Structures are given as C-alpha cells and as structure tokens.
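Pipeline run #58 for the internal structure catalog. This entry was flagged by the ingest filter as a single-chain record with no existing model, so it goes straight to prediction. Upstream metadata was stripped on purpose; only the residue string is passed forward. Reviewer on rotation: M.T. Logging verbosity set to normal.
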Amino acid sequence: MRGFSLLLLTLFVMSFAFGSFAQSNVDYGGDDKTLDDILGHYRIVAVCEKSVGSEDPPLFMAQFEAIETDWQGHVERDVAVFWMTQDFILSWRLQPSESAENDVLLLTGGQVDDIASLRNRFDCDEDALERGEVMLIGKDETVKLRRSEPVSISELFSLIDAMPMRLQEMQAE
C-alpha cells in the first residue's frame, strides 16, 4: 500500500507545483470527463474522510485494500472510486488489471465550489469527514449504503448485483 500512498502524494504535490488545475486529462471511455460525467455512468465507492498531513487515511486505505482483493469484480460492475476530503476529491475508474494505468481525476483547492457541491450532494459534511464514511452510490446517483467502517467486497457486490440496472446489465451479457 506504500506505492498507493506515493501515488496520492505525487498527485497532490503535482497539483500544487503546477497550480490548482480544474481537471487532469481523464479518459473515461474516450473523452475528457468531469465528475458529473462519471456520476450516472459508474457505481461509486466513495470514502469521505479528513486528510491528515502525510498520514495514510485509515478508512480509505482499509477500503482500498478490500477493493484490491477483487479488482476485476469492480471493473465488471462499472465501479469508480472517490476519496472526498476537506481539501480535494480524487476519483478514478478501475481498469481491467491492477497494473494498468487507472483514469485519475483530481479536484483541488482551485475548485472549491465543485468540491463543496459534490460533498453536499452526498452529505459528506464536516461530521462525516471527522468520523469517516464509506458510501456506495448507484448509477441513479442515490446513496445505497453509508457506513463508518470498511465494507466487505461480498456485501458491496451483493448490493450492486441486486440493483435494477445491474440486473439488466447481467441479463444483457
């Protein structure tokens, strides 16, 4: 997991080195996208947690470790991951293998309105940041699960696989 921490730190430092940027170039299916383009097209596992300096965020790291146990299952279910903090939102769509470069989108301090808007949309307020929350957000943009501890992959997949849109996707396959 240290490699992942280094990736996050690198992205965060880059945002300050080059000034806050609205969005990095992201390829979510061919075109540059915004967070609003991701919503409604991907199921989202979002972790709302206060970032504390250079320390690894415990809830986010625990949830990401769970995601790593079945990477392909998340890809098959169209899952994107959000890490929402008081200062930034990091989002990426998982690729078919852990070694593939994931599509990353970073919003930093220059996009305070975007950050606040998304956090407000999913009730990631100061209290939620303080205690930490994991959310599962459906393609219909509603919160399906909210928990203050990591969610097991079996529970996430059971919830996703019972969603009407996922049932339709599985029937079409």
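catalog note: Residues 2-17 form the longest helix (16 residues).
catalog note: Strands lie at 43-48, 79-84, 89-93, 103-107, 133-137, 143-147.
status: ready for reviewer M.T.
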